[in-house]
């Protein structure tokens, strides 16, 4: 009823709903999997009626827009807030946030030392609320985003009136810088002061909000952890641990132990990566300068923690240095993951392999200290509302025509009912028609955006995600070159027997990540040659789709036949696009990494194409590369020679990609996995040729994907970590 009213209203005004929807920008608030997971979680929290809020920064410029010019990535600012009808400015909800200054100590009437953080500067946080409506429930939750502005108002009138026009706006501009722009790195931390300011601004405003709400209830402080659970989504908000301790200690007058008990029972910490370059560390001098009181508290937290470790493990002197929150480097650094573990009651990884890995590698000592029960796994999930119903409406409709009764979008395990129809001719025909229509839609998009004509009946092979060496888009493009060379060497008769393929890439490189940018350039350079080679025709096309984002994912994912999740084993914590592709009836070629392993367990190993070395062997192989001889795979060597001949343009540009494998230890094991990758891609070709078998695999896989709903995942957090129950608020009469 409501929708038809909208449609009719729009039509009266002379607009089509499709055109209006097109106008909406993607929220540009994150980089990749981490932020997108949070968005799925918000959808599940609201849909499952959990009373929960999300907190974040209202970046004026979110993730940049990517343009491809002459084959290179060019970054363009994306002013997404230009048009955002979904946010409600809350000028009545503001918090003053302090930076810099100094700490003065005094003694109160009970002889207790009290710390006073004084001086420095104040920046104002203003709340912007984004409602998150649940699916099939009246519950609507809130995402509160903080925007920074000068505490003193628009500009300094006095300076303005004195003719000092420039500095009259300087305070305002400096304050606004905090929420001005998202750092565009995925899985990389660079230790910049502004980033630390962003983190503190965000957590201080959010905690103030949470504490204010709790204090209104007039409950005693000891009930705080029963009333509030805070989940640290990676280490970026870890300063919240210190901030809550500061509030309880300095502002509310609690004793250290009582305060610390409340803090540790409130927080949970989710680790999302084991990559060393992504583990956050902040320099002690930087924290001292920006947050002098917090540094004192961090040192105290560390002191009490190390004292307790020393008491329990008196013989193990090295242990203290390994687990210390402070790294004794030059300058000293605060290890945020250690702080997050010490400050939380539960620590979880995001897929089984990943959760096992953190317990046996980076956080091993903490398992010894805190015991194994503090560490747990919650395998990631995705919301079927967006990633099936919205992205692939026809498939969603076909599925619901067979699941009947209960809405499968609220209980994804209902999907298993479609396995009964795996042999049903009409069902299979409709299934195949939908995939073809989705591929036709993508083919149109490819033509419009990349200017390449592709045949929708070819096998669509997709790798879309942030560009990163560990995700190994270089392995994929080297494989494409190998395919090209193999096709070139064939007679025209032989070529006719080959399976046509379209290799589709998409993803942003961090602006400062030079190697990732070279990978993009190589993909585009290969495309230019291959797509214009008349010997090859439709047998192989290579496309790089610019500016990969959520809206494009909704077009690309439903159109995939096979997608690539080919990270070096042990490097991709979970991956979530793997789940999206399978849920949309595409198969996977992948390594035994992240959630690929659990996807295999659920859908069956006949329905996935796994290849490559296992995580447990990676360290030994790397060691052998460094200290032994490193033989490069023969087929890969041929690929390298072709690149070096200049077949794909400037050889200089691609030299670093080759030498990373050949001369610099091949850290990501591209050569070790190449043969297995090529062989497995040949199996994909064979399997795709048997369309009947292929469709059976796809239907079976979708039927078994129920586990990967973010609803299951959120229920696990609610039960195992937060100890909360759903709270359904019924619609008021007449509302
Ligand atoms: C990502 C990981 O790289 C993915 O494997 C994982 O699926 C998601 O988080 C969600 O858990 N991640 C990221 O996008 N950015 C980081 N800084 C760390 C992890």
From TrEMBL:
Enzyme Commission (EC) number: 2.4.1.1
Looking up Pfam families in the UniProt record yields: Phosphorylase (PF00343)
Q: Answer whether the UniProt record assigns the keyword Ubl conjugation to this protein.
A: no
Q: Which Gene3D superfamilies match?
A: Glycogen Phosphorylase B
User: Cofactor(s) for this protein?
Assistant: pyridoxal 5'-phosphate
**Recorded GO terms, molecular function?**
1,4-alpha-oligoglucan phosphorylase activity
Q: What job does the chain carry out?
A: Allosteric enzyme that catalyzes the rate-limiting step in glycogen catabolism, the phosphorolytic cleavage of glycogen to produce glucose-1-phosphate, and plays a central role in maintaining cellular and organismal glucose homeostasis.
**What is the official name of this protein in its record?**
Alpha-1,4 glucan phosphorylase
- Originating organism: Podospora pseudopauciseta
What gene does the UniProt entry assign to this protein? GPH1_1
């Amino acid at each position: 009823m409501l929708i038809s009213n909208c449609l009719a209203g729009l039509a009266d005004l002379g607009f089509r709903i499709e055109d209006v929807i097109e106008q909406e920008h993607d929220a540009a608030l994150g980089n990749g999997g981490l932020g997108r997971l949070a968005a799925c979680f918000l959808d599940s929290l609201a849909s499952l009626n959990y009373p929960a809020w999300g907190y974040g920064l209202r970046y004026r410029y979110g993730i940049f827009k990517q343009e491809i010019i002459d084959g290179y990535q060019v970054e363009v600012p994306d002013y997404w807030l230009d048009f955002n009808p979904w946010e409600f400015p809350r000028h009545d909800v503001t918090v003053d946030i302090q930076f810099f200054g100094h700490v003065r100590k005094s003694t109160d009437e009970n002889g207790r030392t009290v710390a006073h953080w004084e001086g420095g500067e104040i920046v104002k946080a203003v709340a912007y609320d984004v409602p998150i409506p649940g699916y099939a429930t009246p519950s609507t939750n809130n995402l509160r985003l903080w925007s920074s502005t000068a505490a003193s108002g628009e500009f300094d009138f006095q300076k303005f009136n004195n003719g000092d026009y420039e500095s009259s706006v300087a305070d305002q501009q400096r304050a606004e810088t905090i929420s001005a722009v998202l750092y565009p790195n995925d899985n990389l931390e660079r230790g910049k002061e502004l980033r630390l300011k962003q983190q503190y601004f965000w957590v201080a405003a959010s905690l103030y909000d949470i504490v204010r709400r709790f204090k209104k209830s007039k409950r005693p402080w000891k009930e705080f952890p029963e009333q509030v659970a805070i989940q640290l989504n990676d280490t970026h908000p870890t300063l919240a641990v210190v901030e809550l301790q500061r509030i309880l200690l300095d502002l509310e007058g609690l004793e250290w132990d009582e305060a610390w008990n409340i803090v540790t029972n409130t927080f949970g910490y989710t680790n999302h990566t084991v990559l060393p370059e992504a583990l956050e560390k902040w320099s002690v001098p930087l924290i001292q300068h920006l947050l002098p009181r917090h540094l004192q508290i961090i040192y105290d937290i560390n002191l009490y923690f190390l004292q307790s470790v020393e008491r329990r493990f008196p013989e193990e002197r090295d242990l203290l240095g390994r687990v210390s929150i402070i790294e004794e480097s030059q300058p000293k650094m605060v290890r945020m993951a250690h702080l997050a573990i010490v400050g939380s009651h539960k620590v979880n990884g995001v897929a089984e392999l990943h959760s096992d890995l953190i317990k046996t590698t980076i956080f091993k000592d903490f398992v010894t200290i805190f015991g194994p029960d503090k560490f747990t796994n919650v395998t990631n999930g995705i919301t079927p509302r967006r990633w099936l119903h919205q992205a692939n409406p026809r498939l969603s409709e076909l599925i619901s025509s067979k699941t009947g009764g209960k809405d499968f979008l609220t209980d994804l395990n209902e999907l298993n009912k479609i396995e009964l129809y795996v042999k049903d001719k009409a069902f299979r025909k409709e299934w195949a028609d939908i995939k073809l229509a989705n591929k036709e839609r993508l083919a149109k998009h490819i033509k419009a955006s990349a200017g390449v004509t592709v045949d929708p009946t070819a096998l669509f092979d997709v790798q879309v995600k942030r560009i990163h060496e560990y995700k190994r888009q270089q392995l994929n493009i080297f494989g494409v070159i190998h395919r090209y060379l193999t096709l070139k060497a064939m007679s025209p008769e032989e070529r006719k027997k080959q399976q046509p393929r379209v290799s589709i890439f998409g993803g942003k490189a961090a602006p400062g990540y030079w190697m990732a940018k070279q990978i993009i350039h190589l993909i585009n350079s290969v495309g230019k040659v291959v797509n214009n080679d008349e010997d090859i025709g439709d047998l192989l096309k290579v496309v790089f789709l610019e500016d990969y984002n959520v809206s494009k994912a909704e077009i690309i994912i439903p159109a995939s036949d096979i997608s690539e999740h080919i990270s070096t084993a042990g490097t991709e914590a979970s991956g979530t696009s793997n789940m999206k592709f399978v849920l949309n009836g595409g198969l996977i070629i992948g390594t035994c990494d992240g959630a690929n392993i659990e996807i295999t367990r659920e859908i069956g190993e006949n329905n996935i194409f796994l290849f490559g070395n296992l995580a447990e062997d990676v360290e030994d192989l790397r060691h052998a590369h460094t200290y032994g001889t490193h033989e490069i795979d023969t087929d890969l060597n041929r690929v390298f020679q072709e690149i070096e001949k200049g077949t794909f343009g400037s050889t200089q540009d691609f030299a670093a990609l080759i030498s990373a494998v050949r001369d610099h230890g091949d850290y990501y094991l591209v050569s070790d996995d190449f043969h297995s990758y090529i062989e497995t891609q040949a199996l994909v070709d064979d399997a795709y040729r048997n369309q009947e078998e292929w469709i059976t695999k796809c239907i079976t896989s979708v039927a078994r994907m129920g586990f990967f709903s973010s609803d299951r995942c959120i229920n696990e957090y609610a039960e195992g970590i937060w100890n909360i129950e759903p709270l359904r608020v019924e619609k008021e009469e007449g509302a």
